[in-house]
Amino acid sequence: MSPYGRPVGVVWNDRIYTPLVTLWVFQSQVLSADHSCRAAVARLIAHRLSNGLRPCSPETGAYCQARKRLPEKFFSTVSSMVGRAMDDKVDPKWLWNGRRIYMFDGTVVRMPDTAANLKSYTKTPNQKPGLGFPIARLGTIISLSCGAILDVGFRSYSGKDHGELNLLRQMWGLFSPGDVLLGDRLMCSWREMATLKQRGVLSINALKNLPFAKNLDSLSARPFPWGPKN
Please, what's the b/e burial string for 93-129 (b: 16 or more CB within 10 A of its CB; e: otherwise)? Predict the structure, then answer.
């Protein structure tokens, strides 16, 4: 079994459509001008022939079934493993004062209105019955040294503890003392900033439009307090 499938328990027979091959074909399908499954399989056939391998069947059934078997966690796991491997090999010259700079940001995605999706992902709270689509909330931690995604979190859009900050809490274990985290206005939370500081992680966040924010404008004129990492 591929090491990329091991963390999420993906078990595949060693055939043509292994998890990584299926992911590669799926990515080519999404990024190509021709999004058809037939064209995606044709690209795999061309790839196999160019590497001296026997061509697989041009039928799309096996590929479609393999794609359906990929669990959600597999995508985020592969992305994180590849991203962290890249970040570990970053040239020290790309660091800022010897510190690694990371960015956290979130977004939402809509998905087909199926019973299976509605089991795990909710619609907006004010949505009328029978309308709208299930929504998932995503959060990512990105290395500014190499541009790679180091971790991905996702959960239902609404509900208790389903906000972006909760996604950050489930991922901030990858930070090390001396790292710097950049965040937008939604990250402007004293609780998160204090917790990160206790862990030795510095944070830079945009201020929310709150009354106290105008009293902090003078801070921008002060010398930056963080020197090189020891």
Answer: eebeeebbbbbbbbeeeeeeeeeebeeebbbeeeeee
User: In this structure, how many other beta carbons lie within 10 angstroms of the beta carbon of residue 23?
Assistant: 19
Measured CA to CA in angstroms, residue 171 lies from 60, 79, 139, 152, 213 at distances of 37, 14, 9, 8, 28
Query: Rounded to two decimals, what is the model's pTM?
Result: 0.73
Amino acid at 78: V
List residues bridging with 180 in a β-sheet: 101, 202
Q: State how far the Cα of 69 lies from the Cα of 19, in Å rounded to an integer.
A: 9
Question: Tokens 């208790």 map to which residue?
Answer: 160
Residues 6+ apart with CB under 8 A from 114: 134
Domain 73-221: top CATH class: alpha beta
Confidence of residue 85 (pLDDT cuts 50, 70, 90): very high
Query: Edge-to-edge, what's the strand order for the sheet holding 135-143?
Result: 149-156, 135-143, 101-110, 180-183, 202-205
For 140-171, write each residue's pLDDT tens digit: 999 999 999 999 888 877 766 677 888 888 88
Instruction: Answer yes or no: is pLDDT of 213 > 60.
Output: no
The answer to whether the beta carbons of residues 204 and 187 sit under 8 Å apart is: no
Tokens 């998932």 map to which residue?
Answer: 136
Helix axes 61-69, 19-31, angle to 10 degrees: 110
Query: What six digits make up the tokens of 24?
Result: 């590669």
